From TrEMBL, chains A, B, C:
Membrane spanning stretches: 55-76, 83-104, 169-187
Protein name per its UniProtKB record: UPF0126 membrane protein
Gene Ontology CC: plasma membrane
Family: Belongs to the UPF0126 family.
Organism this protein belongs to: Nonomuraea cavernae
Main location (coarse class): membrane
Sequence ranges assigned to domain Glycine transporter in this UniProt record: 4-77, 89-162
Protein keywords: Cell membrane, Membrane, Transmembrane, Transmembrane helix
Subcellular location: Cell membrane
Length: 204, 204, 204
């Protein structure tokens, strides 16, 4: 079940990467590369920081699932104009799953709840940040005006809290992931905003 | 005392990151993320290359100091127009401290003086490079027309030299840091320039 | 001989980095930094993922060769307008060598042929990606319309295949490197294209 959640996270992140490739008018190879990096980037960062060999370079599924996602987007992607909302929703789902799973792995490797949450956030946002930087855009993470890092921190913190009180296993992981995903979607839907410093006007 | 120098470096780099957030009109969350990445990025790179678990994911202060810096900038930052010089000066201070401390740690882990200096430079410039790339700018490091890598190399080389002749402890570290910082500030003040290749005109 | 191939790869990648510095009108220090990062970036990524201390921080040649390449470009670079084709050809040569050598090292560290190929591609494309991102451009790798990742994958896959059937040593490595290099050059010469998703028009 955790493996299934992990592959689900990889799948939705890979879809968001391949769709970004469509939006940037990349060919099928560029789409595949962006799908792989988006899907695997956060987990690789997590494993490098935990000082273990990255899971992405040991599992068959981690490498093949992004290729499947690329094929799906290549053959069945909707019109380009409809792509952006899908990127954001799928990205939110991947964010939630990766935050929960990254925090869990960090706790299992002995990090404190605070640092495990920080590493969970890194796992969740790392792949999307690489995707945005490689596509020549400022990461969504920074233009947090519709909240991106906050849901990531909520999901990771919830996972660390549940683990600390002895609640883990896939229902706890799923609950933490859904908390992050739900907050992210609600923030987009209701346009929740983080405050700006005095004298700062938002871009455009 | 080394811990204090380290936290001071993290603090000034975090200030420069949060101020870059103001300049890019990010909200408080984006400012905080940029502060954390600027402050911790170079040290994480150093520790990954030394193949040890990054200090940033073990210490409480490393995570909290950038948040304090973000709060200070959020509530008391001067007018946006005055932000850029402050970023550059604080960045120079962080550069000096991180070069000296990064070189020292690398020497303690058995790297040769040359390679320790190289890793010290990486420690010093890594966080600022991530800050610039994430903010959508070409890193200051590359537009070295007012010298950036040169002071970093001077400070790191001085630290490696002092260590090799048996002089270490915080006065030596501070001296190496001040050498890099002073050279950087002097280069900005007196507009010291590195040469361009023949036929190359500087960008505007 | 493998060391010689490795230094040759570092040299041509460093040339491509220094020439990118000329193209971006950087001074000699910026050129040197870009040369070092382009030449060493892919190998550092490979070694971090293999969880060993990066070779770049242990060998003298790895650090000095990019400086020599920078000096050559600084004193003898042709007119700026003629720089871009040279970057692309040298980049192709570095790509081939690094894919073959990266795959080989990954196999020696026990990765499966599939994952070793993936890490070989990472070794080959990593430095160039860093070069492009730092120079403020979208990586060549993504605008794969003249094939970039495909030759990398061919070369890495060939190396993994040869190794699996017991053929290794420098002739095998060189053959795999030439396969990637030749495919890359042929793709540029004959304008081989990867397909676009339906409804996607290429950028201009």
């Amino acid at each position: 079940m955790p493996e299934l959640l992990d592959l689900a996270g990889i799948f939705v992140f890979a879809l968001s990467g391949a769709l970004m490739g469509v939006r940037k008018r990349l060919d099928v190879v560029g789409m595949g590369v962006l799908a792989e990096i988006t899907a695997l980037g956060g987990g690789v960062m997590r494993d490098l920081i935990l000082n273990v060999r990255p899971a992405a370079f040991q599992s068959l599924g981690y490498v093949l699932v992004p290729l499947a996602a690329t094929a799906i987007v290549f053959f069945w992607h909707p019109h380009v104009a409809r792509v952006m909302p899908a990127i954001l929703v799928l990205d939110g789902a991947g964010l939630g799953l990766f935050c929960a799973l990254g925090t869990l792995k960090a706790l299992e490797y002995g990090l404190s709840p605070l640092h495990a949450s920080l590493l969970g956030v890194t796992t969740g946002v790392g792949g999307g940040m690489l995707r945005d930087v490689l596509a020549g855009e400022i990461p969504t993470l920074l233009y947090d005006r519709e909240l991106y890092a906050v849901p990531a921190l909520l999901g990771s913190g919830a996972m660390a809290g549940l683990y600390t009180v002895g609640l883990y296993g896939w229902p706890a992981t799923l609950a933490a992931a859904l908390l992050a995903f739900g907050t992210r979607i609600a923030a987009m839907r209701y346009k929740w905003r983080a405050p700006l410093a005095r004298g700062v006007t938002p871009p455009e």
